[in-house]
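Quick start: read one record
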Amino acid sequence: MSLRPIPPLPRRFAPVAFIALAACLALPAPGTAQDLPVDLELVLAVDVSPSMDMEERDIQRLGYVEAFRHPEVVSAIRSGLHGRVAVTYVEWSAPTAQTVVVPWRVVGDAGTAASFADELAEAPDAGMRGTSISGALLFAAALFDGSGFEGIRRVIDVSGDGPNNRGVPVEPTRDGVIARGITVNGLPLMLRPGGPGPAVQLDVYYEDCVIGGPGAFIVPVWDVADLGEAIRRKLVLEIAGRPPTALPASFQAPAPRIDCLAGEAAARGWFRDAPR
């Protein structure tokens, strides 16, 4: 398991004629007097597509439960300016298959962190079909609007064990999300090399096609036994991260090293070759 930091460089927005993407690019409403100031608004967007078997989904869920019960995560939360964060937990799969498992909650101490963990542990599993990272990003980005919080930072933390193969393309969707000032971090799960799905270097795919924004990073996982530690490590890094700094608007990131449409291409092949 290794950490792959990505320089906080904005990427050029590639326009796509999709209504959902246009809606994502709408500027968020300004904070109101009723919005509670927090250090971070964090959407945990967790893959529960069929390529994740039940054991892997259970271990992944347990990893988040145990992380919010861990003193290291609580200490990171308490270290911020306000000493509290807002968190919501989402499970996703196909383009229109997303479920808010735990709605927005304020976590500011060991008690509220444990309450969040308990609520997550008791929630039913929402297994669904397809892998639409773009759908997950669009859904997660919309959750910030009207959340009731005013965070110093906004982050979507997306996990997954395969490339985007449903819905709109992921790269321009990601660009639209980070154009709103939202950072996207990743937890690529490479638990079964050679398993279902196209042969893609998933860590590179996440670096080049999925994550972005100031301080964006990935924490790759190759062994299911490391998943819990990886989740805790990633949460500490996200929660204790520094606020974004101003960046030159004219700077453009290098082109992706990998085909960001590899998942869609493979999916077309599956449908073409399927028995009729």
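The radius of gyration is 18 Å.
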